[in-house]
Amino acid sequence: MGTAHSVVIIGAGFGGIGMAIRLKQSGVDDLVVLEKAGGLGGTWRDNTYPGAACDVPSHLYSFSFEPRTDWSRRFPQQPEILEYLWHCARKYEVLPHIRFGTEVLGARFDEDAALWRVSTEDGELTARVLVSACGQLNRPALPPIPGRDGFAGESFHSARWDHGADLAGKRVAVVGTGASAVQIVPEIAGTAASLTLFQRSAPYVIPKPDRPYREWEKALLAAVPGAHALSRAKVYALYESRALAFVKYPRLMSVMNRQFLRSLKAQVGDPALREALVPDYPMGCKRILISNDYYPALTRPDVDVVTAPIERITADGIVTTDGTHPADVIIYATGFESTGFLAPMRITGRDGRELSEAWRGGAEAHLGITVSGFPNLFLLYGPYTNLGHNSIIYMLESQFRYVLGCLEALRAHRLEWIEVRPDVQDAFGREMQERLRGTVWEAGCESWYMTAEGKVVNNWPGFTFAYRRATRRPDPRHFRARRAS
Fold it and tell me: Which SUPFAM superfamilies would you find in this protein's record (predicted)?
């Protein structure tokens, strides 16, 4: 089995790569990153569909310790984001620590040895500290539509895009109208002979202030000290201000809603189609999307929007309550299983406690990072840390610092393990639920932010700078610990 590693990280996306970099910078070199895929990148490795891009500006959707001044455009596209992550992994020498093609099946905390025993398809390894960097959007969700497996044509999820599928001249059905669909539809409309979009719930889609960076702008950002930092700060402040509408004063959404309706009317002339594209829930309750070409694509004569519920899928098409829609290809843009976090891995803590059982009523973790009953386990992008208004990279960097603080406490005080106290975790969970009440996310819609029972467990109900302040250092009073003998 070998000697126990200091830290094992599960996942090589933004969270795993950033955490590994920060650990190495703090002097921890005995670390391993376990990645089930053949390459790094997480969601930016998996989502290679046409038009895949980020909805946060590039200067903010990057590590503060590794600024990039030569982004090609304001909102980065998938290949450029993935290339940036590879650059970071190479520059900071993280690649030698990554074990690609190594899927974690589960992990068990050995209390006697004060070690995590991590089970993989290639065997077991041990670690003093286990960090989950699996993210929230890594397991594609396929809808339980009767007959789905009996479809005779090509079908795939947007996060598992089949690049061998030729859409030219085909009747293409797109199921779902989330963030990926808004990017996919404009890209494939016109290539396909026809495109039918099956909409269960209309999204709010607002204009995307995107454009390529001019060469002189990139030169200025690279040459002038502080120019990039100023650009990043400006974008951060603009996006952070939107938290007021999401969590403090949801009525402010009415201003954005009026702008949305004006923009929709300008882009969609057909009153019937326009009416079908107006959401039936308050703005912000679900993720607000950005695009300049989604609505124009829906007005094409070879594109049809179907709002009737899907009843079943047959060998040659989709049957809704209003008729049959032939299809040669079905693309599922149906999102992810976002509230399971570490699932389907089996994580066992002290006294044989199963994480799936502890989270039966919804995932809970103090500050979204530590879980009572699971010593030396730290989550990145865990419960209550998703955002509706700003960059998740900012939240991840806050979590990196907190985890490093916990590891420093282990070292400085010669502790075998630390574990957040159950009363502290419970108090944090109650605070989160109290603060979520009255937010736009609980305004009466179903979203990927909540469990099947309707409990919001994904989003941070506040400003990101408040989260950074809350995670600036671990409070010793929040933990119980065992000293090394």
Answer: FAD/NAD(P)-binding domain
Instruction: Compute and round to an integer the Cα radius of gyration of the chain.
Output: 23
Please give the Cα distance from 156 to 160 (Å, whole number).
Answer: 6
**Cβ pair 177, 202 in contact under 8 A:** yes
**pLDDT tens digits along 34-46:** 999 999 999 999 9
Say if CB 222 and CB 69 are below 8 A apart.
Answer: yes
**Higher local confidence (pLDDT), 449 or 304:** 304
Closest to 16 measured CA to CA, from 268, 385, 398, 381? 381
**Cis geometry, peptide bond prior to residue 476 (ω within 30 degrees of 0):** no
Alpha-carbon gap, residue 85 to 74, rounded angstroms = 17
448: burial class by Cβ within 10 Å (0-12, 13-18, 19+)?
middle
**Domains, the chain, ordered by start:** 5-139+337-483 (3.50.50.60), 148-211+221-332 (3.50.50.60)
Q: How far apart, in whole angstroms, are the C-alpha atoms of residue 21 and residue 28?
A: 10
58-83 average pLDDT score: 96
pLDDT digits (tens, 9 = 90+) for 2-49: 689 999 999 999 999 999 999 999 999 999 999 999 999 999 999 999
> Structure tokens of 94?
């993280």
Residue 58 CB neighbour total at 10 angstroms? 25
Are 204 and 56 within 8 A, CB to CB? no
Instruction: Locate 401 and state its tokens.
Output: 């610092």
Nearest Cα to Cα of residue 398 among 425, 374, 422, 369: 369
Helix, strand, or coil here: 413? coil
**Residue 443 pLDDT:** 76
Alpha-carbon dihedral angle through residues 243, 241, 387, 197, given to the nearest 10 degrees:
90
